[in-house]
Amino acid sequence: MTSNNTTATSSNPYGKSVADFLSRVDNFSIIESTLREGEQFANAFFDTAKKIEIAKALDDFGVEYIEITSPAASEQSRQDCVAIASLGLKSKILTHVRCHMDDARIAVETGVDGLDVVIGTSSFLRQFSHGKSMEYITQQAIEVVNYIKSTGLEVRFSSEDSFRSDLVDLLNIYRTVDKLGVNRVGIADTVGCANPRQVYELVRTLRGVVSCDIECHFHNDTGCAIANAYAALEAGATHIDTSVLGIGERNGITPLGGLVARMYTADRDYITGKYKLHKLRDLENLVADAVDIEVPFNNYVTGYCAFTHKAGIHAKAILNNPSTYEILKPEDFGMTRYVSIGHRLTGWNAVKSRTQQLGLELTDDQVKQVTAKIKQMADIKPLGIEAVDHLLREFHAKHTDNHLEQLGRMEVTVHQEAQEHSEQTG
Ligand SMILES: CC(=O)SCCNC(=O)CCNC(=O)[C@H](O)C(C)(C)COP(=O)(O)OP(=O)(O)OC[C@H]1O[C@@H](n2cnc3c(N)ncnc32)[C@H](O)[C@@H]1OP(=O)(O)O
Ligand SMILES: O=C(O)CCC(=O)C(=O)O
Ligand SMILES: [Zn+2]
């Protein structure tokens, strides 16, 4: 029993295993795309001041890269690109452009640190988006990559809709740009169709083909965006794209908060060491406010009930040791734990803890009695914490009064007995 407990707390079963020699779960970078992919979210409109505020907050949080909208999108987008690139942030600034010389030329003039170049390689996109063959795409990629490299900027080449592209096409074009010296190649699950096993296999195959870094971008249409990012890192990817709250086209991409939560379970020291996790909530509130949405109730880490424990069995164990039902330590994220007791699923251990917080001394039997009362009342409707506290105080006062009355009666009896005794003994 004791040795099992020791094992459970001293090793991390969620971390990297020795068999995962390619894994980068404890050595990766975030390319934060709230100001690019996030601008493609239905509600998003960021004016210059808001972009700067968000860029500074992301930088302060500690993301390694900030990706911003193509300067080819509009004149204001270009000016914003210049403005953000000149802020002198610690995060490197990237802009995201089509695989086209015109876009690349405008982008290199903005002062960014690097360009993320993209072009669709799936038959859907080759037929219905840009209409180009793989031969044409390859030639275009060579020209654009060589040009960007000649400017000394960082360059990444990415295939859009990678998981619906032909594997041979993909590996050929990645091999070509790797030989040209790109910093990274990118895999994009543009429609959110991939599952973690497919991601693992593709990234692992690519890891054996290119020597440059590998960036991955996952849409969340089928709910796999975080799991896919994790699988990609396990297979040797080095960079993951995120956005705050996952905002992006349709229902978005891997959320920053969800990714750091996932990676924290793999290597807490690594994640707490490089990101200011306690700033996550403010960052999310900033972006939620900017795009006029609420942070979802079940959001990773910062959702209003992310650290609320309700059922009696959970509450008892949590109060003994929070690791029983928490994989994330709320304090590492500037959050606090809450044990909810005003409902019919509560138990006497949770109620006892509340009486202690309130400084009310009750025996275990008394706590059990008052717990029964709470459950009886909560069978009709849940009680707020004020109502529970009132009930506990009332119960305590009543108990204390009774207790005093009893004590009072005892004193009188003793006094009378003493008097009788002294009368008898004269
Ligand atoms: C999956 C993603 O999220 S990729 C990133 C998406 N980001 C953006 O689209 C940025 C915002 N976009 C824009 O402001 C505009 O679409 C622009 C400025 C890029 C282009 O605008 P327009 O010239 O009016 O073209 P439009 O948007 O209608 O169509 C896209 C054009 O880009 C071409 N294209 C699409 N993808 C690529 C690519 N990856 N590389 C090169 N060309 C591409 C298409 O062939 C089409 O060109 P065409 O008009 O000659 O047929
Ligand atoms: O540039 C990339 O890798 C990703 C582009 C994109 O947003 C997507 O394919 O969904
Ligand atoms: Zn995307």
Automatic annotation (TrEMBL):
UniProt-listed Gene3D superfamilies: 1.10.238.260, Aldolase class I
Top-level taxon in the UniProt lineage: Eukaryota
GO cellular component, one term: mitochondrion
Keywords carried by this UniProt record: Amino-acid biosynthesis, Lysine biosynthesis, Magnesium, Manganese, Metal-binding, Transferase
InterPro entries, sorted: 2-IPM_HCS-like, AIPM/Hcit_synth_CS, Aldolase_TIM, DRE_TIM_HCS_fun_bact, Homocitrate_synth, LeuA/HCS_post-cat, PYR_CT
Entry-linked PROSITE patterns: AIPM_HOMOCIT_SYNTH_1, AIPM_HOMOCIT_SYNTH_2, PYR_CT
EC number: 2.3.3.14
GO molecular function (one): metal ion binding
Database matches in SUPFAM superfamilies: Aldolase (SSF51569)
Pfam families, sorted: HCS_D2, HMGL-like
Uppermost EC category: transferase
Cofactor list: Mg(2+); Mn(2+)
BP terms from Gene Ontology: lysine biosynthetic process via aminoadipic acid
Family the entry assigns: Belongs to the alpha-IPM synthase/homocitrate synthase family. Homocitrate synthase LYS20/LYS21 subfamily.
Protein's name according to its UniProt entry: homocitrate synthase
